[in-house]
Amino acid sequence: MSTNIFPVDLYSDTLTKPTAGMRQAIANAEVGDEQKREDPTVNKLEAMVAERLGMGGAVFLPTGTMCNLIAHAIHCRPGDEIIIEQNSHPVHFEGGGPAVHSRVSIRGLATERGIFSADQVEGAIRPNDPHFPRSRLVCLEDTHNMGGGTVWPMAAIESVAAAARKHKLKMHLDGARLFNATVASGVKPAAVCKHFDSVWIDLTKGLGCPVGAVLAGPADFIEEARRLKQLYGGAMRQAGIIAAAGG
Length: 247
Ligand SMILES: Cc1ncc(COP(=O)(O)O)c(C=O)c1O
Known about the structure:
Bound molecules: pyridoxal-5'-phosphate
CATH superfamily: Type I PLP-dependent aspartate aminotransferase-like (Major domain)
Distance between the termini: 37 Å
Order of helices and strands: HHEHEHHEHEHEHHEEHH
Number of helices: 11
Largest sheet: 7 strands, mixed
CATH architecture: 3-Layer(aba) Sandwich
Shape: globular
Number of domains: 1
CATH topology: Aspartate Aminotransferase, domain 2
Structural class: alpha/beta
Helix content: 25-40%
């Protein structure tokens, strides 16, 4: 017997289901071998996301979790440390992915609702001393899920990015719900993304697609991401079938 007595289940946007239009797009999708970059529907989706986020390129991946792990692996070397809000997705919900895949440690920043300051970043950066892990990457989540869907104010993004740049750290954005954030703030997605070295969006959250996420960044970053996509077993074949829903 179902225990859900409510007509609409508001547990999470992860419960969204593909619309009739998406199912139609899936049925009509032109497909090819995605590993050879010959799937026109995947290629179109990647180009659209790169353009919308104002990034040099983009790569279609099976999940947002894989977007995070590939970004960590590209930006960091084993023994590095990631500065990230203490209740962010990779800290609790990726099976220890940063430690397993990238062999990095996590410096979790305490916040009320997911938004940290440039001062907190400055305070977390390790001195250049062989005793310490090397601070390498600052990760933001926008909206911040465990913070209750908090939207990062632009001024906070700008000051955190300036602190990261000053110390030559990379910036990564978990934008699983970036479009929710930019609809709420009225800021164009590209205006947010220009502060980051990598960013990704999830197709399976508010958008309601059945599968997939898109990781974006400069062309050389995306070239490396395609290599890791293969390495981690995320390269697909006629993936236009699933990409069509997000196109
Ligand atoms: C903020 C955030 N990051 C990453 C993920 C992981 O995305 P996926 O479920 O596509 O792996 C989620 C999923 O709920 C999320 O909420």
